[in-house]
Amino acid sequence: MGTGDYLALAAGAANTIAVSVLAIVIGAPLGLGLALIRWRQVRGIDPIIATTVSLLRATPAVTLVLLVYFALPTIGLELPRFVAAVATLTLGTMAYNCEIWRATLLSFPSDQLDAARAFGMPRGLRVRLIVLPQIARAALPALVNEMTLIIKVSPAVAVIGVVEATRVAVRIGAATYNPIPPFLVALAIYVGVVGTFVAAQRALERRHRHGTRA
Amino acid sequence: MIPRGIEVLWEQRDALLNGLLTTIAITAVGAVCAGLLGLILFALLISRQRLVALSLAWLIDLMRCVPFMLFCYMIYYGLPSFGIVISNMTAGIAALTLYNAAYIAELLRGSFSALPAEGVEAGHAFGFHGSRLLLRIILPPVLLASIPMLGNQMVQIIKDSAFLVIIAVQELTFVANEIQATYYVPFASFVCAMLLYWVLCLAVEAGVRAVLRVAEARR
Q1: Taking CB atoms and an 8 Å limit, are B190 and A67 in contact across chains?
Q2: pLDDT, position A214
Q3: Which superfamily, per CATH, for B2-218?
Q4: Domain CATH code at residue A130
Q5: What are the pLDDT digits (tens) for B31-44?
Q6: Contact between residue A212 and residue A170 where contact means Cβ atoms under 8 Å apart
Q7: How far is the CA of A191 from the CAs of A17, A55, A156, A196, B64, in angstroms?
């Protein structure tokens, strides 16, 4: 493996991180939104969201990315590879995030909300000031776990030609007839990225614990 | 557009069925092998051989950082470097087995550490040790507590199996992609594949609920 190969792997790693982080940044709030809508139990919308989430959670990322990239053009929506990749991972993580937020919302004690309503606090404020800060803390471990899962399914976007870390490693392996070194570098990249998320979660939890003690 | 797609899918129903059956077969074989290997790894994880347990825990942590697709490539392209040449189907099943065995061992260990230790201590007091302690005392409550998580892992194995399209295992996604490439009906073929995966996952969830009901009734 030459310097060029290491640079290609670094570029692949940058794409892996970009695709995953964009999906997380867009997908997590969308999932929270869906969970809040389901929390209000709007008649008619609720079963639609529940079905969509169930379907998306059962769909492999490879299948979904092929659908988004090859099928959307037939209805006139032609997405560049990178956008199709981000859209696919966003849909998947949105569905999982919705379930995570919903679980924490369901276990949220309602007496706090009753108290806030008794003081005349409007609904939007109740959600923003009372519910969100508390469920965010409760959901954090599951959310970070889901983020690491997104990084681990992100190689799926290679099937539509997005050049991310795994694809670069395979390419170098094929070109040099020695697949082991590039695979080990790719492995180190994923361990680094996933490890960073886990470390960040631990640090956030420590800060929260100090915060509540002070 | 859509009616033609459905027409094509109906003509290709044998191919689709074969793809679905291949997906079911590789996930079933992979799940059973991963389950058995996971049990063995779990036994080693909680064994008193500290060095074995520690190095295994380290390996499992490493495996949990690896994307399945990278692991798949490592098995398929990496093993020939060590003189081991296997077919793509064998490589696929081996990848599913090894990868998920690590996750299963870890989730069993999690259930085990959440259970009270008295059961094992009582087992020791009654002279249980080794495999009899594992099979009669440790495993029953651990497996019972792990049923929902094992179901989740089964869904994960079904979804992982789609990655095998990259090493040309002719499973559901592979077949859907071939049909889409030949007849240009991407929407119908991939939506059909999605719905079939959904049915498989819903069946697993129903199975988990049924097992939990039986377990609850027998308690």
Answers
A1: yes
A2: 44
A3: MetI-like (1.10.3720.10)
A4: 1.10.3720.10
A5: 999 999 999 999 99
A6: no
A7: 12, 30, 18, 8, 9
B197 touches chain A (CB under 8 A): yes
Nearest C-alpha in A relative to B65: A191
Task: Tell me the per-residue pLDDT of B92-144, one tens digit each, with 9 for 90 and over.
Answer: 999 999 999 999 999 999 999 888 888 888 888 888 878 888 888 889 889 99
Which of A15, A183, A185, A190 is best to mutate for the B interface (most B CBs within 10 A)?
A: A183
Q: What is the pLDDT of residue B219?
A: 73
The complex's ipTM works out to 0.88
What is the number of domains present in chain A? 1
Is B198's CB within 8 Å of A61's CB?
no
Selected residues 45-104 of chain B with any CB under 8 Å from a CB in chain A: 62, 64-70, 73-74, 77-78, 81
- Domain coverage including residue A45: 3-213
Chain A residues within 8 A of B159 when measuring between CB atoms: 58-61
Alpha-carbon distances, residue A85 vs A67, A91, A158 (angstroms): 11, 10, 9
CB neighbourhood size of A27 (10 A): 25
The two structure tokens encoding residue A31: 């999932």
Structure-block tokens of residue A99 = 């379930």
Write down the pLDDT at residue A149.
94
For chain B, the domains span 2-218
For the record, the structure tokens of B114 come out as: 């959440």
- Please tell me if residue B149 touches chain A, with a CB cutoff of 8 Å: no
Which residues in chain B have Cβ-Cβ distances shorter than 8 Å to A55?
194-195, 198
Once rounded to an integer, what is the mean pLDDT over residues A55-62? 96
